[in-house]
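Justification of computing resources. Each target in the renewal requires a structure prediction run like the one illustrated here; the chain below, 438 residues long, is used simply to show the kind of job we budget for.
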Amino acid sequence: MKRKILIVEDNVSLSQRQKDWFEQAGYDAMTAMNEPAARALIRKHQFDLILSDVRLPEGNGISLLEWLKKEKRDIPFIITTEYVSVPDVVRTIKLGAKDYLPKPVHREHLLELAEEMFRPLATVRTKPKDLFKRTCPKILEVERYARLVAPSDMSVLILGANGTGKESVAQSIHENSGRVGMPFVAVNCSILPRDLAPSMLFGHEKGAFTGADTAKPGFFDMAKGGTLFLDEIGTMSFEIQSMLLRVLQENIYMPIGGQKEKIADVRIVAATNENMERAINEGRFREDLYHRLCEFEIRQPSLAECPGDILPLAEFFRKRFSKELKRDTCGFSDDAIYRLRSYSWPGNVRELQNMVKRAVLLAEIPLLELSDLNIGGQTEHTNEGIAPVVLPLKDENAEKESIINALQACNGHREQSARLLGINPATLYRKMNKYGIK
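Resulting structure tokens:
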């Protein structure tokens, strides 16, 4: 059954464009132009996600979120607006919004965030997962830190943007520790229902609340003897933060409705894409809990910081999905390779994986072409959604070739080409004169 998404946006062309993006990605999407229309649809349909602008012709996104909270409708909610207001953002987060997206909202960011929202609450692994061996110096440094901290029972906090592979780092810590062979339980804190989060984390006894017909173990029970990975820890409510702090301080917890305390025999590894200093200053995250979680900190770099990993990862995903989807592919064309290298990958490794998977599925010939990567206009304009990666300019011949390729990719548009190359337009003009490029 398809996930159902409600888009609350008064800009008709924008809401239709976002609706098309979601439907192309396999979701069922509906639109509303104002708050009253949105409420009517919410009463009629069961939505899995709501994407709402703050400013609307009637009502606004914040009052819609307040209404949802009053109605006890726990639907993941994302706020969008082109008028950045820190107080509004803080207020929506406190009301329960899962995230905030400034306009213009780009397709890759939106779909990557939706995928994040729909990830399972928790996954349990008892066997090591095969991980791609990357060679980027920054990744190798991360792996070194993971191996060093693994044998201890120190709490580790992994920082990094969405889609960079923070869970892989947590798995590496688990697999190099004395807890290897025991469960590795990964919990997506960003989608934990607030009312049920305590029982999901710590379990509950029969009769603890309405609907608790039987006793049920929590994630701490499931991870006993192993590692509990708390992803997106920055989204955790203040109430749960306090409960988690007690567990970390005293190493014990009590199931909801229970009378007997349990020993918390788990290694805690947490991760977030939040600026934790800002979250603490804004009162969204407890400083004492932060210090408990961050006995050792690891920062996972973005894919843009590891350009040497892009093509090996793309090839790894091509081979994997060719096998999974039973498609005969043999590599990437030169134009596709150039695009893979020059694109900034705002959605990081997860975006690269998804794009290659779609390309493998849609390819008409074994060699994946640039057009196979051009899904829904994602690569149609080089200036939309791209924070360019500086291309390696090792010598004058390579520099001249890179400039020519950038100009061709941007249809001769010099300012776009400069952004793609990561240099300012004046520098581009000077180099074009130097190499006689017209």
